[in-house]
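Re: that backbone. Tokens:
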């Protein structure tokens, strides 16, 4: 069988494959400490599940509008106005099969051969692959610990060419956990406006912030940047709804109409009764989000202290999300060797930084229970000391 050339251009998701390897070892009865998964370990809050169950019982089991249930689009638009200061109405919103699907479809409607998309590294591993699938060229801009793994306005300006169409901003960041300050967001917005390009802001971790970190949605900086902004978000991380496959994207009516057309010919609407769970998630109490955030905050403290106590590792304090991104270069190993060795010898699963465009780092998720964090850190320490 001859497969289409586009298949050869993309790499399979390394996060998913390492998570799968760890799960397979676990299934064999091997005692694994896994810090690989990018998902909260909590159950979906009860009131959200109840709302979806009720919708199921009421027969909300039929096809719905491709753009999403009108009530959910309303709820999302209200959330974006009230929480993020973004002046959107329901017609500016499309409900998708997850934040990943939002971004994939965005590339499909926006990017064509020749278009460049600026992606700061370390990046979420799907961004460049999605750009390639759309025929575009990912332009990777490396950043390092000296700027908190954040792209500077100068770096952004220097990577813009006449072919640049889009800049991908992800704050809080997966994999680094870093959060752009409001001043940094404003400075990047000025460059985007000056160059008259578009920005997509992936805000999936906006609720998971620590200490004094503040999330400013880039589109809220002013009317000029608002017109050039596309917002991608979803329910997976804030509400622990990863398996529900529910995300959304907001932008101009023209863009949303184009996305509805593509979605109408690919996935149609997102699971109808699941959307009623999402309506409850947005419209009911937000206490569950805060409870999960507090648990993450405690684990972050423990993991950070343990990591930085291991000679040869160094990790900056993340301001958001639920990841640590320590530098392992002092061990002399490349990230893939490090991760393979750690899994084989100590049965600890972490993700090599090379998957995110940073071979000198590894990613650990602390969306797991405290006991596993303690055991896993003991084993990691043993591994690094044995090198
Ligand atoms: C998890 C994640 C998403 C979206 O996840 P979905 O499950 O598809 O909603 C998007 N961006 C980043 C950076 C993520 O980590």
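Recovered sequence:
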């Amino acid at each position: 069988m001859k497969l289409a050339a586009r298949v050869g251009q993309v790499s399979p998701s390394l996060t998913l494959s390492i998570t799968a390897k760890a799960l397979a070892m676990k299934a064999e009865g091997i005692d694994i400490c896994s810090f690989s998964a990018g998902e909260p370990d909590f159950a979906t809050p009860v009131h959200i599940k109840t709302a979806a169950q009720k919708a199921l019982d009421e027969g909300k089991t039929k096809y719905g509008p491709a753009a999403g249930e009108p009530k959910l689009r309303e709820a999302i638009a209200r959330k974006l106005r009230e929480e993020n200061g973004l002046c959107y109405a329901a017609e500016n919103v499309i409900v998708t099969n997850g934040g990943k699907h939002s971004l994939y479809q965005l590339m499909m409607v926006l990017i064509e051969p020749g278009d460049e998309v600026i992606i700061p590294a370390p990046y979420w591993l799907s961004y460049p692959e999605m750009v390639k699938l759309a025929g575009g060229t990912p332009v990777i801009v490396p950043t390092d610990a000296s700027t908190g793994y954040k792209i500077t306005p100068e770096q952004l300006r220097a990577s813009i060419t006449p072919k640049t169409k889009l800049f991908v901003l992800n704050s809080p960041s997966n994999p680094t956990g870093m959060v752009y300050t409001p001043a940094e967001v404003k400075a990047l917005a000025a460059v985007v406006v000056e160059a008259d390009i578009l920005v997509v802001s992936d805000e999936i971790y906006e609720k998971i912030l620590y200490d004094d970190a503040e999330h400013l949605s880039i589109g809220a900086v002013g009317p000029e940047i608002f017109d050039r902004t596309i917002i991608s978000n979803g329910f997976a991380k804030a509400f622990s709804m990863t398996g529900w496959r529910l995300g959304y994207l907001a932008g101009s009516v023209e863009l949303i109409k184009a996305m509805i057309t593509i979605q109408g010919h690919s996935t149609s609407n997102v699971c109808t009764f699941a959307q009623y769970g999402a309506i409850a998630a947005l419209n009911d109490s937000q206490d569950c989000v805060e409870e999960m955030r507090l648990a993450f905050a405690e684990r972050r403290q423990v993991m950070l202290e343990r990591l930085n106590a291991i000679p040869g590792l160094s990790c900056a304090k993340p301001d958001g999300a639920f990841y640590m991104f320590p530098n392992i270069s002092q061990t002399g190993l490349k990230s893939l060797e490090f991760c393979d060795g750690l899994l084989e010898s100590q049965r600890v699963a972490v993700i090599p930084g090379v998957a995110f465009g940073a071979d000198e780092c590894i990613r650990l998720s602390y969306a797991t229970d405290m006991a596993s964090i303690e055991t896993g850190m003991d084993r990691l320490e043993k591994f690094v000391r044995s090198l």
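The chain has a mean pLDDT of 96. Residues 287-308 form the longest helix (22 residues).
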